[in-house]
Write a structure and sequence with these properties.
The chain is of the alpha/beta class. The protein contains four helices and six strands. The chain has a domain at about 10-90 and about 100-115: HAD superfamily/HAD-like (Rossmann fold, 3-Layer(aba) Sandwich), CATH 3.40.50. The chain has helices at about 30-40, 60-75, 105-110, 125-135; strands at about 5-10, 45-50, 85-90, 120-125, 140-145, 160. It is globular.
């Protein structure tokens, strides 16, 4: 059986990225209703994020892991289960194969969780997220949270104010 998923960017979609690289661990945007709705609709919830400050030595892998686990714990307290997460630790100058909009991490998660990409969505707040979704073959949703309001001219399949408006699309 194939699954459907929503691939979520972390910074600007789930948490406020205005203070990066020192993102407060408990600074979740208003996302609970949207995530709960997606979970109830049977979507796997997978976070895929670019985390270039690891390569820039602004945050360690341990600090990054602590933030991801904190987010998962906060969501778990609200009954929301994140199925998996992964991130690219590189900056653009590293010329890696995993930084969005490249699709290596998305393909790995799709294979690991048996995901049908044609029935899946990518939700992000930046052009790299939307291009990642297009490259992956998923439907794309731009949220106007985080940096999303700066990218309204990109060709996302859908645009919503925040994650809690997801029920207008799915």
């Amino acid at each position: 059986m194939e699954n459907k998923a929503v691939f979520l960017d972390k910074d600007g979609v789930l948490v406020d990225n205005s203070a990066y690289p020192q993102i407060p661990e408990d600074n979740l945007l208003n996302v609970f209703n949207g995530l709960k709705y997606l979970q109830e609709k049977g979507y796997k919830l997978i976070i895929i994020s670019n985390q270039p400050w690891i390569s820039k030595k602004l945050r360690s892998i341990e600090q990054t892991e602590k933030i991801f686990k904190s987010i998962m714990n906060k969501l778990g307290e609200k009954g929301i289960f994140i199925d998996d997460y992964t991130y690219c630790p590189h900056q653009t100058s590293d010329k890696c194969g995993c930084k969005k909009p490249k699709i290596k991490l998305g393909l790995e998660m799709a294979s690991k969780h048996r995901i049908n990409l044609k029935h899946s969505f990518v939700i992000g707040d930046m052009e790299a997220d939307i291009n990642f979704g297009k490259n992956l073959g998923a439907k794309t949703i731009l949220v106007k949270t985080g940096r999303g309001k700066d990218f309204l001219d990109i060709e996302a399949d859908y645009i919503i104010e925040n994650l809690n408006e997801i029920n207008k699309i799915i």
